[in-house]
Amino acid sequence: MAIFVKAEKKEETEKAVIYSYGENPNNLEGIIEFAKTDLSWKVVKLSSSKGGKFSAVSIIPRILRYYQENSSFPDVIYKES
Question: What is the pLDDT of residue 53?
C-alpha cells in the first residue's frame, strides 16, 4: 500500500518555517515547524490521518534534504512510498 504525503509552506520568518502536511493533499491539517538557526524541527500538530506520525516522520527528511541541496525551503514537497 502506497503512502502519499504532501507538505506546503505556510509561513516563513527570520527564525522559523512552518509547514502544513498530510496524506490528503486537499486537507493538510498537520503542522511542522523548522528552526532556521539549527534546522531542528518539532511537530506542532499531528495529522489526524491514520499514519499521522508516520507522515510527519517521512516528509521531514525530504524537506531537510531539499534545504541542504538548494539552501532554501521548498514551497511544496511530496513523498510517496
Answer: 80
